[in-house]
């Protein structure tokens, strides 16, 4: 065989090997395999394994991810039913449910996420616009309708996604719910005013309770003092009565001694070292002391 013949044989063998190699394809467990015949989907493989196809270019394979996928739509501002602007940051979880429809309508992941973002943002705007802003947040101890609203958004957006693009919309979450930058100052000022009003209410209630406690304490103090005074007077009266009884018994036993002691006690109270008293000669004190020659002046 000549050199050109050997070259042609080598090239032909190589082309035959490549043709045979292109007839086999491996589909991974995380992929869908779409076999395209002249640009049209001939079959869809959803299970992993080794498959045989027609040689290139008669049949090609497009691989699509069958796992759960996530993306973040653009941050958007929506108007609630009570005319309040809300800035919503969302997170979408999705997967391919109908590979053939998905490939025909979107062509790939980036285009699919762009179209799915439009659907999701449209439904968020429609649902949020039909509810007041308080339905998305819990205020003043009231339960919010957040889960119900998010379920409604997922259900409505999921119907469009599966019917138009073959996408199973698994979930939509709100990463952040905030107010527009230009409204924050007014909202914060209103919040401060409301909190100040609540604080003033609590302070007035505390002041009222304080005065009530002080009044109760004062009433209790007055009652205790009155009871103590009454007990003291009763004890004092009992003591005076007992003293009078003792004095009476003593007077009954020895009237002269009792009279003498009472007289001495009287003089003890009215006389001190700087007092001068003039007594008559027949004063009772001299008679008690048994003095015959009574002095004219006594100290």
Give structural notes:
The chain has helices spanning 3-21, 99-105, 109-128, 146-165, 181-253, 255-270, 284-289; strands at 24-27, 31-37, 40-45, 49-52, 60-65, 69-71, 76-79, 85-96, 167-178, 277-278, 297-298. Strands 6, 7, 8 and 9 form a 4-stranded antiparallel sheet that branches. Strands 3-2-5 form a 3-stranded antiparallel sheet, with no helix packed on it. A two-stranded antiparallel sheet has the order 1-4. Helix 5 crosses helix 6 (255-270). It is rod-shaped, with a radius of gyration of 56 Å. With 299 residues, the chain is α+β, with helices and mostly antiparallel strands. The longest helix is centred in the last third of the chain and has 73 residues, at 181-253. A hairpin with a 2-residue loop joins strand 2 and strand 3 (40-45). The chain folds into 4 domains: 9-65, no CATH class; 69-178, Tetrahydropterin Synthase, Chain A (2-Layer Sandwich), CATH 3.30.479.30; 184-253; 255-298, no CATH class. The termini are far apart.
